[in-house]
Amino acid sequence: MGLSQYDPGAHERCAWNAGRKVGAKRALKPRQVWAIRFFLDREARLRDRALFDLAIDSKLRGCDLVKIKIGTLAVGPEIRTRAMVVQQKTGRPVQFELMTDARASLLAWLERRGGTIDDYAFPSRIDRSVPMSTRQYARLVDEWVSAIGLRREEYGTHSLRRTKASIIYKATGNLRAVQILLGHTKIENTVRYLGVEVENALTLAEGTENGWPLLFAERPPFLKSYRPSYGAGFEQCAA
Questions:
Q1: Sign of torsion, CA 7 13 14 17?
Q2: Cα separations (Å) of 52 from 76, 101, 158, 209?
Q3: Cβ atoms within 10 Å, residue 61
Q4: CA 34 to CA 49: how far, in whole Å?
Q5: Average pLDDT of the segment spanning 27-39
């Protein structure tokens, strides 16, 4: 049930997003990723370091990340180099790689945590038979980014999902590869998710700051004999 705009109570009720920053969250930069890793290592937070590394490498949504089971990550005494998860949102499988840092932190955490292959890798603190809640995961992300001096309003769980995807796109420009890694059904979703068009437009705009004088470095052939009469300032600009 909702309130009518004519009800007296409606004038005292604020919108759910009043004073909040809404929209896509920013991806972390490589130096920020290492800053968070250093903070977690310094504080000896074994679970959080493993969770953070897995979030960066897997590029999974929070609802899929917290429900990962030990058997998905480990085979015998070793951590897999590749794993696969069926996404809750789309029902489609998505594969991801686990790099050396992530495998090392996951191995250290799982050795400490114990359990069987059917147990959740990151259980709830209240009931170990259920996974960590997505809300708890979001609170941890807020704590991590705040610890290195970032504004928590600009970052969230999707920041970790977008981080490696953004780095791969900037390095290769391969949208199709990023689409597969993120598990998107349509490439248009990947374009919107990464903000590719906006990012490219801003990069071009910023590039004109250094490249603007080059636009007038040499006159086109049809302007070589042209002598403007608008003053010396314009003539110097056109030369």
A1: negative
A2: 23, 11, 12, 37
A3: 21
A4: 11
A5: 94
